[in-house]
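User
New here, help please:
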Amino acid sequence: MSVTSQMKIFVTAGTQLPFDRLLKAVDEWAGQNPNAKVTAQAAKDEYHCKHIRVEQFLSPLEFEGCVSEADLLIAHAGMGTILTAIELAIPLVIMPRQFQLSEHRNDHQASTAAKFCGYPGIYIVNSLAELTEVIGNSDSLVKPIKTKSFEKTQLIDYLQQQVIN
């Protein structure tokens, strides 16, 4: 499915390790959907994007601006991005880094993503096909729910307990 209006997507892959699989998947999708405006913040990767703008470093103010302008966030399973998406009620697509693909030191991102499977407004993908399907249905994506009892520190404590256990 093609994007008809100018959807703004912000991709964050972290600043410590490359994540070529995520960037390649989004770049290939963006090549088929030229109406989308896609910006990414990512460490130096081997893959060179042709259809999205990639910045290795964004200041906190620039990062905040990219997030707040986005209609959709796409990210590795970093807790900061997950918390930000919930706090700002922006739909989030997570593609966790995989240890067996040498994308991280262990599989903690897969564990984190598994804890959010089924959470409203957070969509877990592992491949280009899954990513394409989720973004292609962007009109039906729901926003994460920020309940009245949402307290960032309480959520962090809860998530740390869940990931550790």
User: Anything to note?
Assistant: Strands lie at 8-12, 37-41, 53-55, 72-75, 92-94, 122-124. Residues 8-164 form a domain with the Rossmann fold fold (CATH 3.40.50.2000).
